[in-house]
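Translate sequence into structure tokens.
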Amino acid sequence: ASPQAATSIGSNVTSFSAATISWSVSRVAYTSETYTVMYGTNRINLDQRSASIRGVTGVSAYSIELTQLEHAAIYYFQVESTNTIGTTRSEIRSFEVQNACKFHINCLQFT
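Result follows.
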């Protein structure tokens, strides 16, 4: 069967350069599945790719941390579920990375 689309997708910005993406799948298909987060600052061109996570039977919740993000940027992302039959993509979501100056007193280092 085709891979199940990710659901209950969430994002949590953990610093001015990192965010955690989490999602659920209702079941892992009979063939091995991998999950990858495609992301970028252009909704039309998600040009960055996270490491892949292998699906495990009996596990329905997954997460991955994205690092080295640009501060004060809006990122768009979607979760790809892939198996030997094909790839299923989630809807595109977004999150905003805060300006680094909110985390540091000396903002001159970020100009």
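Note: The longest strand covers residues 7-15.
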